[in-house]
Design a protein that fits this description.
heterodimer, A: 852 residues, alpha/beta, Ubiquitin-like (UB roll), Alpha-Beta Plaits, Dimethylsulfoxide Reductase, domain 2, six-stranded mixed sheet, 28 helices, globular, B: 158 residues, alpha+beta, Arc Repressor Mutant, subunit A, Glutaredoxin, 2 domains, 7 helices, 11% strand, binds iron/sulfur cluster, binds FE2/S2 (inorganic) cluster
């Protein structure tokens, strides 16, 4: 069935028609509109959108088709064999004029005060296709809402969206995109006839994590966003093509900037079908505001008498030279460590690695400041799983999609939308398998919620079910069975909370899939047992031959996590990368590799005395705040580079202001392994510098150059990137040992720390728009859980773990359906990670109502 | 809960008859309307929870249909057609007469809660214009006198 539909759309059969005298052959099912586009004929349109289903609401796309008595809407008319179409006949031109005249009957014609002026489809098409007058002399119908009235009948319908219903031409693009593409239900069309209006759901506001797109696709000035409106006219800005820095996908964006003010005014989509379909998450759209933030670090700071004071770059570098020099001379470079953000560009990451490994001769570097305790093992199952190839475009070509251990709307907005598209447009079947109910579930055929901390058992269960049902090759089954059957299927059922039927359903789905996408996410990646889970995945992959008919990978979370892996930024790089580095540098430190966790441990033992953080904030993000702060406070000499003052920079002896990604050209590798360039939009603000410059400056203090010049640096990077960095899975099935789940009754509720759907990491709280959506921490609970502790939405809850305690308001979830607690990590006002213990597989807490 | 147990049960009973829960929006609204004589946002939320369809979709559908009054209305809903045929044959005068007799304007409800007066588009009874629909019944070929009699009858509980 799914295949049949896909064939229709992806098309084998073709038809041939004639458009404006030209013959064209297109896949069967193509609309006249798109057939025309293929030969370069652009038919004017308002309501058609490349990524939505046609509705034929605006009538602007009229064409004349031979043998049809009236004009037809080309967007909703399928081209057929022998059809003869003309897109620009006298009749068509008149038809268009009439449509424009009709569309403008109640339109206020307030272009001079409308913020859309200059980029308004209605304005443009009226100029090119309309009359310069109207025959409708009567009063225009006006929407006015007295109490909420702002200017020009504006109505604020969401944290960032302003609606002017008088300008709306009812193309329904906003409502359709929201429902069809985002699965959100906070904006709708109400009433009918000339009273029809777009508005927020009664009693609600338009605040979904993709809401900014609605403004961007509105063809008129009916939807505008407070971020951009009335700040500048669009023709006074220049555009710069770039990419998003907050996601692993590297969604393509356009910066709108103004050079005299050296200011970025907004970000819009730059549709790249291979990646993003032209939809941006609000984080991507509004996150750029951090670039302009007044609270950015403006100059270097150095600690004097216990206080940080402003300093010049030279002064700051001199202090670094002195202290790092002392540490190196007295204790050796192995006593220096560093942590860098995987959101930085290749040049910065590579320079960091080279600084440590060739100048400090230290192997103490890492880029994962928010993953709990990672054992230092090279090419471990997790590393292998994270190195697997993945193609975003293949998601919608898959007939079966399984998301495992990933809360996509908090981790991978772009893939979240891609999966929705695969299901809604291409009839894929999705399965959501997670330790708590997630938002993707509404499109999933089955949602399976397993008990937290049993991830690998779920995978074993799928394998055993397949073996039992004889869905897989019997010799492979015979090999795997002894390795995982310590627990029988029914025991696994007990442990994981999933039913036998569910295991079978998944096993059947995987084995019957023609093309499969199996996505593994942050819930697995951040787990203490990530290696064990990925070992189980390795078995599953082998047993079902998943990768032979599709893809299976742990998705990289940050803008350049992939780059960090490929360039060897972990303490234990891939073996091939390590070998290559040795070749390039002619040396490689042979001291013990230390990752974030062991570095913090060594800080406490005073074996790491100097530490450099770049663009990362372990004090907030390390999943054990007590542990991280004890370590960092012990460090003799801490250098912190960041865009903002953070919990980490506060402790630092030297603070260096870091450039945002909008202030220099940088290459980033997205989760597919695609290298894309983030283009410089504006000059560095204040005295900020890019990380690669800072690394070079620090190196120069020791009298050395990291690189001869930019070109030689890029060549070294190229050399590393040209390696095949997909690690092979182990040849054999792996034994998965099983440790009994220990749950402590006094802390009964599993806790998950993640990103708010409107935030990412520690930087986005500097974006005023994103704060308008969500500005402080909360604990998200299911209805049932909230009832158990007797709290209503918004009431304060005390969240206690064995090591910490916070009080945050409850947020009753529409999605969760089990006893778990979810708390965002994005707000400095709540020390969320103080609840976590680094060596715990699943953190758990006690929840109590706070009595007033 | 504003919806009575009986209404909820009726909605639940019908739900299984529809292949997609969305199909249940109008029947559910109708059942709610039958109980209450109106529907509003609180009702949409309640229905949304029962049939598991987003509140938005229910609100959109309800707003489209003028047949669902959006606030509590009088015991008798007087809907006077004001479309072409009726208008030509004196619908306006009928509404004026009702406004005068009931001392309310279009869209209002009398203080005793007995009558709500609205004018509506074509009710499909053009050949018997002018006409009025009172709750579920049509009254056709109206004249001033007929209207007065109707009104008296209703006032006296007939
Ligand atoms: S608000 Fe804009 S996008 Fe939405 S229906 Fe109106 S014109 Fe179309
Ligand atoms: S674009 Fe075809 S009807 Fe609107
Ligand atoms: S015009 Fe009144 S019923 Fe049709």
């Amino acid at each position: 069935m799914a295949e049949a539909v896909k064939e229709k759309i992806l098309a084998v059969a073709t038809i041939t028609c004639t458009i404006d005298g030209q013959q064209i052959t297109v896949p069967k099912g193509t609309s006249v509109f798109y057939a025309a586009r293929q030969i370069g004929i652009v038919i004017p349109a308002f309501c058609n959108h490349d990524k939505l289903k046609p509705v034929g609401a605006c009538r602007m796309c009229y064409v004349e088709i031979e043998k049809m008595p009236k004009l037809q809407v080309s967007c909703a008319t399928t081209a057929t064999d022998g059809m003869v179409v003309s897109t620009n006949s006298q009749q068509v031109r008149e038809g268009r004029k009439a449509v424009i005249e009709f569309t403008l009957i109640n339109h206020p014609l307030d272009c001079p005060t409308c913020d859309k002026g200059g980029e308004c489809d209605l304005q443009d098409l009226t100029f090119s296709h309309g009359y310069d007058d109207s025959r409708f002399g009567f009063n225009k119908m006006r929407f006015i809402e007295e109490e909420k009235r702002d200017t020009f009948d504006d109505l604020k319908i969401g944290p960032e969206i302003v609606l002017n219903r008088n300008r709306c031409i009812l193309c329904y693009k906003c409502v359709r995109a929201n429902k069809e593409a985002f699965g959100e239900y906070d904006i709708g069309a109400f009433e009918r006839g000339d009273l029809t209006e777009i508005n927020a759901t009664p009693g609600g506001e338009v605040s979904n994590p993709f809401s900014g797109n609605l403004v961007e696709i509105c063809p008129v000035g009916a939807l505008t966003n407070s971020d951009w409106r009335y700040k500048i006219r669009v023709w006074l800005t220049k555009t710069v093509p770039s990419i998003c820095n907050f996601s692993g996908s590297g969604t393509n964006i356009t910066f709108y900037k103004e050079d005299h003010k050296n200011f970025v005014y907004r970000v819009t989509a730059r549709c790249n079908d291979a990646i993003d379909d032209g939809w941006l998450s609000d984080i991507t759209r509004y996150g750029y505001q951090i670039v302009n933030s007044e609270s950015r670090l403006k100059t270097p700071l150095i600690k004097k008498g216990g206080k940080q004071v402003k300093a010049s770059w030279d002064q700051a570098l001199a202090v670094i030279k002195k202290h790092m020099g002392e540490i190196k001379d007295q204790s050796g470079g192995v006593c220096i460590g560093g942590l860098i953000s995987p959101s930085l560009d290749n040049a910065s990451l590579y320079s960091f690695s080279k600084l440590f490994r060739t100048i400090f001769k230290s192997n103490n570097i890492d880029f994962r400041g928010d993953y709990r305790y990672l054992p230092s093992v090279t090419d471990s199952p997790f590393t292998i799983a994270a190195s697997q190839p993945f193609s975003i475009a293949d998601i919608e070509k898959s007939d079966v999609i399984i998301t495992f251990g990933t809360d996509l709307i908090r981790e991978h907005h772009n893939e979240y939308l891609k999966i929705r598209r695969a299901v809604n447009f291409f009839e894929a079947t999705a399965y959501s398998v997670n330790p708590y109910a997630v938002k993707t579930a509404d499109i999933a055929k089955s949602e399976m919620v397993y008990s937290p901390g049993t991830d690998e058992l779920v995978i074993n269960g799928i394998c055993l079910a397949a073996i039992e049902k004889k869905l897989v090759d019997s010799s492979a089954a015979a090999k795997l069975k002894p390795k995982i059957s310590k627990l029988s299927l029914s025991e696994l059922t007990k442990q994981t909370g999933l039913g036998k039927e569910q295991f079978k359903e998944l096993a059947e789905a995987i084995s019957s899939a023609k093309k499969i996408t199996f996505i593994v996410g942050e819930i697995v990646a951040r787990s203490l047992e990530r290696d064990k889970i990925c070992a189980a995945l390795s078995n599953l992959n082998k047993l079902f031959g998943v990768q032979d008919k599709g893809q299976l990978a742990v998705l990289s979370r940050y803008a350049n996590s992939k780059g960090a892996q490929k360039l060897g930024l972990s303490a234990t790089p891939y073996e091939i990368v390590k070998a290559e580095l040795k070749k390039i540098w002619g040396e490689y430190p042979d001291c013990q590799p230390r990752n974030t966790d062991s570095m913090i441990n060594l800080m406490k033992k005073e074996e790491i005395k100097g530490f450099i953080t770049v663009g990362t904030n372990p004090m907030r993000l390390y999943p054990d705040r007590g542990f991280a702060s004890e370590g960092l406070e012990h460090v003799d000499f801490l250098v912190a580079c960041d865009m903002f003052e953070t919990e980490t920079t506060e402790l630092a002896d030297v603070v260096l202001p870091l450039c945002s990604w909008a202030e220099y050209d940088g290459d980033y590798i997205n989760l597919e392994g695609k290298v894309q360039t983030g283009k410089q939009a504006i000059k560095p603000k204040y005295e900020a510098k890019a990380a690669f410059e800072i690394m070079e400056l620090i190196a120069s203090q020791s009298g050395v150059k990291l690189f001869e010049n930019e070109q030689s640096r890029n060549e070294e990077i190229e050399q590393l990137l040209s390696l095949n960095s997909v690690l092979p899975w182990p040849d054999d099935f792996l034994e998965i040992d099983y440790d009994k789940k220990s749950s402590r009754d006094d802390y009964p509720v599993p806790l998950f720390i993640c990103d708010d759907p409107h935030h990412s990491g520690h930087l986005t709280e500097k974006s005023p728009s994103l704060l308008n959506f969500s500005d402080s921490a909360y604990v998200e609970l299911s209805k049932g859980m909230a009832a158990k502790i007797g709290v209503a939405d918004g009431e304060p809850v005390r969240v206690e773990s064995p090591v910490g305690k916070i009080v945050v308001p409850a947020k009753i979830s529409r999605v969760l359906n089990s006893d778990v607690a979810i708390i965002p990590r994005n707000f400095s006002s709540t020390q969320t990670t103080s609840l976590l213990m680094r060596k715990k597989r699943v953190d758990s807490v006690k929840l109590t109502r706070v009595e007033e | 809960m504003i919806l009575s147990e009986k209404t909820v049960k009726k909605i639940n009973d019908k739900l299984s008859k529809y292949p997609k829960a969305k199909g249940m929006i109008l029947p559910a609204l109708t059942l709610a309307y039958k109980q209450l004589g109106y529907v509003d946002n609180e009702i949409y939320i309640e229905i949304s929870e029962i049939i598991n369809v987003p509140q938005l979709e229910i609100a959109e559908a309800a707003s489209f249909y003028t047949m669902f009054p959006k606030k509590p209305r009088g015991k008798y809903l007087l809907q006077v057609c004001n479309n072409i045929s009726c208008a030509l044959l004196g619908a306006d005068a009928m509404v004026d007469r009702l406004e005068e007799k009931l001392a309310i304007k279009r869209g209002e409800t009398t203080d005793d809660g007995l009558f709500t007066l609205i004018s509506v588009e074509c009710l499909g009874s053009c050949c018997t214009a002018p006409m009025i629909q009172i709750n579920d019944d049509f009254h056709e070929n109206l004249t001033r006198q007929k209207l007065d009699e109707l009104l008296e009858g209703l006032k006296n509980g007939k």
